[in-house]
User: Fold this.
Amino acid sequence: MTGFRLPVVGHQYCVLCPVCSNTVSFSCKSANIYGVKCYLCHTHINLQNPSEPLTPDDPGVLPKHSFDDSVSSRGVCYSMEVRESSGGSASAQVAMLISKMTKEQRHIMSKGPYSEVQEVFSARRIQAISDKIWFLHPLVYCVEYLFFGDKPVAEVGNVRLFRREFPVVGPFYIPVVKTSTSSAVPLTIMIVFTGVLTYITHVVGEPHLWHNMKLIFMLFLPLCGSLWATVYSDPGYARPTFHSVPSLAADGPSPREVEGGVQQERESSWEDVNGQSVERRWCSACGIHRPLRAAHCYFCGMCVNEQDHHCGVIGVCVGRRNIGMFLLFVLICIATMVLTVTTAALVLRSCVSQNMGGMDAAAADSKGKGCKAMTPLLYALLVTTLVVAVFLLLGTLPLFVSVIAGVLTATTTRERLKHIYPSGRSPFDRGVLRNAWDFITRGKPASIIDDRFVSQCLMQAEKADDFIL
Assistant:
């Protein structure tokens, strides 16, 4: 029987599927089994003659009375095409292979361009949604025109650079992202809420409601100030290397350019941080290996140091240099929403109690002209304000908690969502208390936007014009 081999119970074997050509690994559980099922195409393979599959009515098992489950010449004999395998089961071998490939890919190659292309299209979809609120954009245009003018001194990526000078501060540059028009949404909501509650409080005339309104008025200026300080500040842009191809520096890479870049340029460099390898990916748009924890923002068109996320509500990146001001803005928003909900609820409760006869006429008159002057339209505005404020509060609180959690664990929102660190813990984590102390005392690094940077942007713009001509 030179063309056959005797199976040994407990040994591992492998055979080639005659239908899908997949290598099927299996363990010999009994010497009276001569059929095995392919886990890909579900073909029943004949171990005695693998080139011809078993028929559907053939179970591939000898009757129990014809064999005593020991190795004997009377039992099943495998074809020589059935080879012994040194590995485990098929699933175990596949898992080991995938694990090995993943480990090698993480240490040798950067991630493929597919995720970059996804980010490009995601940025364009979100921007298209933002463009639908064009009727609110004039509010931002007016603010920018009054404070910055209409002609930037230079542009880089999707960021316009304006130059202003004050007697004490001196000259400085203000970066304005093209998506800054999104900041009209929170500003408009705040103006509408304040106006509605002020008018309704005046109509109701209850003195204790004006205490809440005074607090809302006091928060209005800090809210606008923190909003504009976050939107019109450098979030921590990384200095790009201007390419010889002007289109890359002007508008950023298209999805086709991202996919078709030179592979050598996309190779990552790796740095050891506290015993953990951290990737520095190549950015084809900026022409640099991104600094540690930096990411390219396709809204801004530049890499941002320690980018937490690009906030679509205010239209700007939250990064190393403006995350503190962003937290202050979110905190003021939460306080404003709490006061708005409280004031609207108090007005609604007072009007309901009066309409339900909860107080006599003298008490109602002592409270003011009140609910007698409330029209159905005012009730609708009041309820709408209350409901919207509650939803905004419920949406803002998780954001604040998420950013604070990132500060305490030395991670960013982007790093947590994309699982940047395989171990699940940031190599920059030094403990909750130390992370909080470092965040408070570290200060802001110097901005790259200075006279030298602006002159480079102008030179690049001239090269782009020459290239087009």
